[in-house]
């Protein structure tokens, strides 16, 4: 099948590369020429495990190509996948549809023959209807269907998730369009449940799933606070409740709050849609407020740990919103750092992958260390904010030798509490006394 993917971000590029790998012919399009040039030279515009190798392989065998102009690729395509960003609107916090509308308007002119236009971006209910209207207005003769194909990949595991999806949701209002998508995913036919639903249901499923997961994270964070006050270990509690198949053991790791490019914006967008439809969804509002407070609480814990020290130095390990990615969008680390900076803290940071992205957000307000050990040089507290494997394998003696005051705040529970204490550190994890 010939496919044009619009947007070469985490979702668009992973989808394009995955579809090429299972045998389709794909052109990935991005309006940012610098990204396309990088891709043509075999480089990725972001970090995602195993994607560069797979992308290079499929470029070489001619199954994937890159372009900044959509005319030719869209004209030749049986299927167009829209995977552009839907960030929160700066004022209303609803999903901002400007990139979706621009992409739909632009592609309309180039459609030839029957084409399915699929949205992989996370979009509010009714967006498929809007895209249909926009295309019809621009190109009344076009023969097309619009479907919703919500994406559930996790950054850091995106390639794995492409090949091992829990389920594939297809929001198609016509059998003709559904059959095109069935054909697209024929590789998965005997491996994965393909669920055919109405387009509006598919659009809602994505928000409903993300809001639920955000709620689960917030719940375990609240439980962790409870455990800290009652001399209970959150690990044991999470294990105990996670073993119940009705609850499940995923998303039960407490931390500094959820972040990333999806949960914060999707919970806000869901809350906005509920308000617009006069539906009371108090749970989501509580989660959003609770998560914001969580990050403030974490910043306060850090400031408290250096109270009374003259010109304290704070070392931070981890800037990405989670391990396995360089994505710092809505990273709890960035929000926590912003609050520390308001208090004029002297901060040195390190992240194995996210330094470049973080520099764009933090500028010269913090210093960027060459490695994890130089970051802790002369520090009065080490704060761990992302659960990278290399932090779990820390040489504690080296850290102890470098720090001025031996205090560790481990907001991802990366370290072995007993070993850290044996190393002479004052240690505080999350959800443990
Ligand atoms: P991203 O910001 O990384 O990438 C979007 C890309 O689209 C950018 O490269 C941008 O230049 C390009 N673009 C924007 N408008 C364009 C246009 N008119 N023509 C061509 N290119 C255009 O975004 P992302 O993280 O890949 O997310 C994309 C969508 O997928 C969002 O709606 C997001 O909510 C959803 N989603 C993301 C994830 C995730 O983990 N990142 C997971 C599931 C769903």
Plain-language structure description:
This protein has 433 residues and is α/β, with parallel strands linked by helices. It has 3 domains: 196 residues, 3-Layer(aba) Sandwich (Rossmann fold); 77 residues, N-(1-d-carboxylethyl)-l-norvaline Dehydrogenase, domain 2, CATH 1.10.1040.10; 140 residues, Rossmann fold (3-Layer(aba) Sandwich). Helices cover 45% and strands 14% of the residues. The chain has a 6-stranded parallel β-sheet, sandwiched between helices. It has a 6-stranded parallel β-sheet with strand order 11-10-9-12-13-14. Helix 9 packs across helix 11 and helix 11 runs antiparallel to helix 12. The termini are far apart. The model has no long low-confidence stretch (mean pLDDT 97). It binds nicotinamide-adenine-dinucleotide.
What is the CATH class of the largest domain?
Answer: Alpha Beta
User: What percent of residues adopt helix (DSSP H or I)?
Assistant: 40-55%
What is the rounded Rg? 23 Å
List the uncertain runs: none
What is the structure about, briefly put?
With 433 residues, this protein is of the alpha/beta class. The protein has 18 helices and 14 strands.
What are the defining features of this structure?
single chain, N-(1-d-carboxylethyl)-l-norvaline Dehydrogenase, domain 2, 14 strands, binds nicotinamide-adenine-dinucleotide, six-stranded parallel beta sheet, Rossmann fold, alpha/beta, 433 residues
Secondary structure layout plus pairing:
Elements: E1 2-6, H1 10-21, E2 25-29, H2 33-40, H3 51-60, E3 64-67, H4 71-76, E4 79-82, H5 98-108, E5 115-119, H6 127-138, E6 144-148, H7 158-163, E7 167-171, H8 175-184, E8 193-197, H9 199-230, H10 234-242, H11 263-276, H12 282-305, E9 313-317, H13 332-342, E10 346-350, H14 355-362, E11 367-368, H15 372-375, E12 381-384, H16 389-392, H17 396-402, E13 407-410, H18 417-422, E14 426-428
Parallel strand pairs: 1-2, 1-4, 2-3, 4-5, 5-6, 7-8, 9-10, 9-12, 10-11, 12-13, 13-14
Helix pairs in contact: 1-3, 5-6, 9-11, 9-12, 11-12, 12-13
The structure holds nicotinamide-adenine-dinucleotide.
